[in-house]
From TrEMBL:
Any Pfam family matching the protein: Prim-Pol
Organism lineage: Bacteria, Bacillati, Actinomycetota, Actinomycetes, Kitasatosporales
Domain of life per record: Bacteria
Domain DNA primase/polymerase bifunctional N-terminal: 3-146
Source organism of this protein record: Kitasatospora terrestris
Protein name: DNA primase/polymerase bifunctional N-terminal domain-containing protein
Length: 164
């Protein structure tokens, strides 16, 4: 809708209502790393992880991005008490394509994701699988399950993106 979206971003309910009334088909993004983070994985790994998280009693909002990706909304690690634990995300500029980094992507401070409901250019949708009324789980607990699921389905990063 706007190239200045970052400076226009708001949580003001009245402003959001005005924008929605003006353009009810608009997609909304949420900045990550302030109130929440998003762990983004291939759908195959997401389905497997969702079953395991359910078995562990770990809830939290989850969205599907078409048939390709799952978004796990978690509490943030973007504002820890120890600033040495802070990191930023470069996922919106690097890597350039999903094929370069098909596995887990952690959207934290400096990143954003679409919020459901949203329409994608290919006609698919971003939709809630578990709604935003769910409490945000600890990201490290979810990360552990998602990492295992990505490994099991073969959704791992190219060597250049591996740590260690």
């Amino acid at each position: 809708m706007s190239f200045a979206w970052q400076s226009q971003a708001t949580t003001d309910a009245e402003q959001l209502a005005r924008w929605l009334s003006r353009d009810p088909q608009a997609n909304f993004v949420t900045a990550t790393g302030r109130a929440h983070d998003v762990l983004d994985v291939p759908a195959e790994a997401g389905r497997l992880a969702l079953e395991r998280l359910d078995a562990l009693g770990v809830g939290g909002p989850v969205a599907a991005v078409g048939d390709d990706r799952y978004l796990f909304f978690t509490a943030t690690r973007g504002t820890p008490a120890d600033e040495d634990e802070w990191w930023t995300s470069a996922l919106d500029s690097t890597p350039d394509t999903m094929s370069e980094h098909p596995g887990l992507r952690w959207h934290c401070r400096g990143s954003y994701t679409l919020l459901p409901p949203a329409a994608l250019p290919d006609g698919s949708e971003v939709r809630w699988l578990r709604g935003p009324e769910q409490s945000l789980p600890d990201p490290l607990r979810v990360l552990d399950v998602l990492t295992d699921a990505c490994t099991e389905v073969g959704a791992v990063a190219e060597e250049q993106w591996l740590i260690g």
